[in-house]
Amino acid sequence: MKLTRKLVLAKAKASDLESVKKLNCWGCNLTDISIFTQMPNIEVLTLSVNSISTLSPLAGLLSLTELYLRRNQIPSLSELSHLRLLPRLRVLWLAENPCCGTDSSRYRLTVLRCLPRLQKLDNQVVTEDEVALALMEGEEVRTPPGSIPIQLSNNGHPDAETENDPLNYNMEETNKIREELGMKPLSRDKFSSPCSPSTREKPTMRRTHTVDAVLLLLRDLDEEELRIVHTATLNRLQTYTLGSGEPQLLTAQTETH
C-alpha cells in the first residue's frame, strides 16, 4: 500500500505536508513511503508494523529526531546509510526486521557505528562507551549500490587526475569519517589544494592524510561528539598499551588532564 497525501493529512490533521511535524502510521500495511520526500519538516515518525523495505525516502528528513520502524521488512543494515546525514536523529527502533539477524550484540554495534549520535536504540539507552566500542568493532555499513552518483569527466569516465589527487583522497577520508558520525560531507572547496602527483600515494602519505582528515573533522564536533571521540581514542590507545606490555602508561597520562 502506498502512503498518500490524503492519508497523511487525515492522520496528522493538517492542511499541507510541510506543516506535519508528527505522524503515526502504525500498522497501515505500507510498502511505499515515497511521500516523505515532500515532508522535510517532520520530527517524529512512527512506521512500525508495516511492510517497508527501503529507507531511501527518509534521507532528506533533516528535522527528524525519532523514527520507529519495528516489525517491517528492512532486508539489510545497508539501508541505514540513508539515515546517516540526519543530524537530529536520536531515537531509532528497528527491532524485529530481517536486517537485525540473530546476533543482537553484533547488530547493535553495527547500527551504532553507522549512527553514533543515537541516544536510544530499540528502546535501550545508548552509552558513550557503547558508541566508542561500536566505532572500533562494529561492521561498516555500506551504501546500497546506485545510491551515490559517480562523478564523471566530460568523456564519461572518471577523471584520472582527480582519482590520484591527494586532495581527493584527503577529502574522501574526512567525509568517510563524517558519514560515520552522521554529519554532512564537506565540499571540495573546503580543502586546500596541493599539487596533484602523477602516481598513487605511498601508504605513509595516506596515513598522514588520514590524520589531517581527523583533525579537520574535530573542528566541527560539539561537546557530546568530542566526548565520544575521546572515549574511542582512549579505548584504542588501551589496546596498543596492553599489547606493548605497559598497562600503566595510559593511566598515568590520562590522570594528568
UniProtKB/TrEMBL annotation:
Residues 144-167, 186-206 are annotated as: Disordered. One of its GO terms (cellular component) is U4/U6 x U5 tri-snRNP complex. Gene3D superfamilies: Ribonuclease Inhibitor. InterPro entries: HIND, Leu-rich_rpt, LRR_dom_sf. Keywords: Leucine-rich repeat, Repeat. The keyword Cell cycle does not apply. GO terms for biological process: cytoskeleton organization; mRNA splicing, via spliceosome. Found in a complex with CFAP410, NEK1 and SPATA7. Interacts with NEK1. Plays a role in cilia formation and/or maintenance. Plays a role in the regulation of cell morphology and cytoskeletal organization. Involved in DNA damage repair. This is Cilia- and flagella-associated protein 410.
